[in-house]
Amino acid sequence: MELKAKGFLFDLDGTLVDSLAVVERCWCLFGEEIGVSRDEIIHFIHGKPALTSLRHFMPEASEDEIKARFRWLEEMEASDTEGVIALSGAVALLQRLDELAVPWAIVTSGTVPIAHGRQQAAGLPEPKHWVTFEKVSKGKPDPEPFLLGAKALNLDPKDCIAFEDAQAGIYSALDAGCQVVAVHAPESMPRREQIHAIISSLTQVSVTHSDKNGVFTLLVSKNV
Question: Which spans are transmembrane here (predicted)?
Answer without folding.
Answer: none
